[in-house]
Design brief:
22 strands, D-amino Acid Aminotransferase, Chain A, domain 1, DNA polymerase, domain 1, 25 helices, alpha+beta, five-stranded mixed sheet
Length: 707
């Protein structure tokens, strides 16, 4: 019998649609799992380079097969959840992440992409700044009337930790700005520690018998995020300012470079290696110079960041879900080392995926001690022929956890046997299978536990996801508490969370009498649960853990359907080729993969029963409109034809800001069609269905009334 083939190494250009769909799905799940380990568990299992490679391959598949494209193609969450130890600060302007490039050719393409979006010719002037990418902890400083009032970490990009008292101990950060800054000025930058200070701190830690820090970045993060500001004051931290958040009444300059110069005039530290450049080649040349200086710099950097200089152009370019279109980070190459593979441990995620993790002899790679690495899946292990006992080559690019490149064959022990991947779940003993595509006979690269309803690993992880900050956000019901409640049988389903207080009243041993709890903590937990009985619809959808439905797609589904009942009714009827399936598929940015996953979820009877039990306890509420006064808020819009005043991407971004839904094709549910020059079949269909159509000028006038 022919062994099913997976496509993890197959060039995207050679893939069929069926192969691409499976690889696209696998990559999405793998990226989501890595995000959970990095952001939620603080225990990453891949390097920056390998994580970036996964995202890049995902994007290449969508570029070749646009029908697979969805808003979840790259995970939209940024950073990590704020710690419960600190008070929270809501960022007035989100602190988002940056896209990455790794080659000179990609820099050229980045510049070309910016020009295409803006409609600029190749010879039109386009200035950009180039600045070192500091390897530290992102921080936002809010000044009002020149006085420092708040300092916060990036957190998850929308909400960070209040570290004001700690930042006030940093001598480089002024308590009062010099000159005449704006009335409100949020300065963003990086907190870091120099190499000399890092080694001195670790020497003191060792002398005191305390844990050593892995690298300067961890030392800086650990020092800033102290509950005792006196500890922060005892550790020499530094800061570079390079961006901004909320500013009122206006920025001090209309260029990136001009604002950075103003920061310096206000007394804020800025990086002296920031330069203004005008071509892709000039950007690359500066990158090379900084790379040569890297070893001699007193602080760690992991690349160079390029930003469009003119702020008006930045505003036109706007953002994708997780990063600005007008900036990108050009990362440095990875670093390598060798060590011994001592074991392979299988971890089971909330979707049942079995993920192999390499346990290594600790080794220093680029100044960081690492002991674990992901091996992705059984095909990857077989392809590289990695065996327990092997000396393996590792690559690291910015993270503690490296990539396993392969074995050093000449050092292989004589008794090293090929690794046999388990065909049963190590947690519950259920069969672990690789799904076979009925049409192609090809196997999914991921092996999954089939014990969906009985596997503790899946149930616990799903409950953790449900209660997590970005989902239902139930304070006090963290990973440790869920594991405890699940293992003692107190909480086995999401609905059980909301009956906890009622059941506790009938128990002989109350929650307040358990270890780790008391009268106040028990009351606080019950209060936190009660406060989530009317969750925002998008959070509720995301909390359900539907495959391929992350935060962004949950928002899109919530905005499109308006209520959970409407989503559920449509999804129940969303058989293949049905009008209901087409409606979900037609939501801009969703696509067929997500539509299939949503339909599958709601058509599963066991899920329906669990939903009925949950909905007896909670009532999801509609999302707030983005712009309440917008005349197009809540309407479904289709753009067709060539637009003269803006690019198609700019038009879609404008509609989204105004609370409209952008669809890819015209249907009975379309409210408005914006027709540019040369509009064809979509315009004809709109007229046939009696749908309102407007010109580009009329659209701009309509949009202006809601701005």
């Amino acid at each position: 019998m022919k062994k099913p083939k997976a496509h993890g190494d197959k060039p995207v250009a050679e893939m069929t649609l069926a192969q691409a769909r499976r690889e696209h799905r696998r990559l999405g799940e793998e990226i989501a799992a890595h995000d959970a380990r990095y952001y939620q568990e603080d225990a990453p299992t891949v390097s920056d380079a390998e994580y970036d490679a996964l995202r890049r391959r995902y994007g290449e598949i969508e570029e070749k097969f646009p029908q697979l494209s969805s808003s979840e193609s790259l995970t939209k969450t940024v950073g990590a959840k704020p710690s419960e130890k600190f008070a929270k600060v809501r960022h007035a302007v989100p602190m988002l992440s940056l896209g990455n490039v790794f080659s000179d050719e990609e820099v050229v393409e980045f510049v070309a992409r910016v020009r295409r979006f803006l409609g600029l010719s190749e010879d039109a002037p386009l200035a950009m700044t180039a600045e070192p990418k500091i390897d530290g902890l992102s921080c936002s400083l809010r000044y009002e009337k020149g006085e420092l009032v708040t300092a916060a970490t990036r957190g998850d990009g929308y909400e960070g930790e209040d570290v004001t008292a700690n930042v006030r101990t940093m001598r480089e950060i002024p308590a009062r700005l010099e000159g005449s800054p704006p009335d409100v000025l949020e300065v963003r930058g990086e907190v870091y520690m120099t190499h000399a200070d890092f080694f001195a701190l670790n020497a003191r830690q060792e002398e005191a018998g305390k844990t050593l820090f892995a690298n300067p970045r961890n030392a800086a993060a650990g020092s800033l995020r102290q509950l005792d500001a006196a500890i922060t004051a005892s550790r020499p931290l530094h800061f570079f300012a390079y961006a901004w958040g909320e500013v009122a009444p206006q920025l001090p300059a209309r260029t990136q470079h001009g604002v950075i110069e103003a920061f310096a005039a206000y007394g804020l530290p800025v990086n002296p290696l920031t330069r203004l450049r005008h071509t892709a080649q000039e950007l690359v040349d500066h990158y090379r110079r900084v790379e040569e200086m890297r070893a001699s710099l007193p602080y760690d950097i992991d690349g160079v960041v390029y930003k469009v200089d003119e702020i008006a152009l930045q505003e036109r370019l706007g953002f994708v879900s997780r990063a600005p279109r007008w900036a990108v980070a050009h990362k440095f190459p990875a670093q390598e080392a060798t060590t011994v593979l001592r074991g392979i441990e299988i971890q089971v995620g909330r979707t049942g995926a079995l993920t192999p993790v390499a346990r290594l002899d600790p080794v220093t790679v680029g100044g960081v001690v690492v002991a674990n690495a992901t091996l992705h899946n059984e095909d990857e292990i077989a392809r590289k022929d990695v065996r327990v006992g092997d000396t393996v080559r590792l690559r690291r690019a910015g993270d503690v956890i490296p990539q396993v490149l392969g074995p050093v064959l000449e050092k292989r022990p004589a008794d090293a046997a090929p690794y046999v991947f388990p065909d049963h779940c190590p947690v519950c003993g259920s069969a672990a299978l690789r799904e076979i595509d009925a049409k192609t006979g090809e196997a999914d690269v991921v092996r999954r536990c089939t014990g969906v309803l009985v596997c503790p690993a899946q149930a616990i992880e799903r409950l953790k996801h449900f209660a997590s900050r970005d989902a239902m956000d139930i304070e006090g019901l963290g990973e440790k508490q869920i594991e405890q409640f699940f293992n003692d049988g107190t909480i086995r389903t999401a609905a059980d969370i909301f009956t906890l207080s009622e059941r506790d009243r009938t128990q002989l041993k109350k929650l307040k009498d358990r270890e780790g709890y008391g009268e106040v903590s028990a009351r606080n937990l019950f209060g936190a649960i009660e406060a989530r009985r009317a969750p925002p619809l998008n959070r509720f959808i995301y909390a359900l853990g539907i495959r391929h439905v992350g935060e962004t797609n949950a928002r899109r589904l919530a905005r499109h359907f308006g209520s959970f009942a409407a989503l559920r009714e449509t999804a129940r009827a969303a058989a293949p080729e049905s009008e209901a399936r087409a409606e979900i598929n037609n939501i801009d940015g969703v696509g067929p993969v997500v539509a299939e996953a949503v339909a599958d979820f709601f058509m599963e009877p066991r899920n329906e029963a669990a939903l009925d039990a949950l909905l007896a306890q909670v009532e999801p509420t509609p999302m707030e409109a983005i712009v309440a006064s917008s005349p197009v808020a809540g309407k479904t819009i289709v753009f067709t034809g060539a637009l003269a005043r803006m690019t198609r991407d700019e038009a879609k971004a404008m509609a989204d800001r105004l609370g409209a839904k952008v669809a890819a094709s015209v249907s009975k549910k379309t409210d408005l069609v914006v027709a540019g020059e040369g509009a064809g079949s979509k315009l004809a269909k709109a007229r046939e269905l009696g749908i309102e159509t407007v010109s580009e000028e009329e659209w701009l006038e309509l949009a202006g009334r809601g701005a």
